[in-house]
């Protein structure tokens, strides 16, 4: 049996081996904590550093609890966040997540621990992911528009080169307060293209589906 959700890579396969080698009965508790922290995880640097989920003191305690070194703990944290976020993007049900992990080579009892953590925290993880992406429940609260036009002549031909910049201000994206859209083209083409982009963004934010509190069912 193979997994269609988790592709086999050297790093992921190594992480599976680390999980399979864990003997601590507290692994389910740790996975639940990781999922809960991942739901509210803010990564302003954009580097995906899962180690930021825990303080240095907490990481030291986790290495003792799991009986592993700091490098393997980092592997566990990064892989767990990856698993939960992948399940969130796919909208995977808990049973499907467990089956996919077993298909990727994870022992059944470890996969069950992920299943249980996803039952408890899956809806919160998905909600947190939505709030951190442009496709999430953001509200357009303002915009700014600038049109630039350069006019020159070449022989008897009048040349006009127009460009436009639209800045959209959205609420609900703490680390991304604004977004610039640029367009260019002849005459007023750039202006109309940028204005159309702003209108489309406004429609998409107002038509965003309401959060039903789930997306994950057992």
UniProtKB/TrEMBL annotation:
Q: InterPro entries annotated for this entry? A: COMMD10
The record's annotation in Pfam families points to: COMM_HN (PF21672)
PANTHER family tied to this protein: COMM DOMAIN CONTAINING PROTEIN 10, COMM DOMAIN-CONTAINING PROTEIN 10
Q: What is this protein called?
A: COMM domain-containing protein
Q: Which organism is it from?
A: Cafeteria roenbergensis
């Amino acid at each position: 049996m193979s997994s269609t959700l988790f592709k086999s890579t050297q790093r992921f396969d190594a992480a599976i081996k680390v999980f399979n080698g864990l003997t601590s009965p507290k692994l389910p508790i740790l996975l639940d904590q990781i999922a809960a922290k991942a739901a509210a995880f803010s990564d302003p640097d954009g580097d995906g550093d899962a180690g930021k989920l825990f303080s240095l003191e907490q990481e030291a305690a986790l290495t003792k609890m799991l009986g592993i070194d700091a490098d393997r703990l980092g592997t566990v944290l990064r892989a767990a966040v990856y698993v939960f976020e992948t399940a969130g993007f796919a909208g995977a049900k808990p049973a499907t997540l467990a089956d996919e992990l077993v298909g990727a080579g994870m022992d059944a009892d470890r996969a069950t621990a992920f299943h249980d953590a996803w039952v408890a925290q899956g809806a919160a993880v998905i909600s947190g992911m939505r709030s951190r992406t442009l496709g999430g429940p953001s509200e357009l609260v303002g915009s700014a528009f600038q049109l630039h036009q350069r006019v020159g002549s070449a022989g008897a031909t009048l040349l006009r080169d127009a460009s436009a910049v639209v800045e959209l201000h959205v609420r609900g994206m703490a680390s991304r307060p604004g977004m610039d859209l640029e367009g260019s083209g002849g005459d007023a083409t750039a202006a109309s293209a940028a204005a159309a982009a702003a209108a489309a963004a406004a429609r998409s934010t107002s038509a965003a589906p309401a959060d039903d509190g789930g997306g994950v069912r057992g």
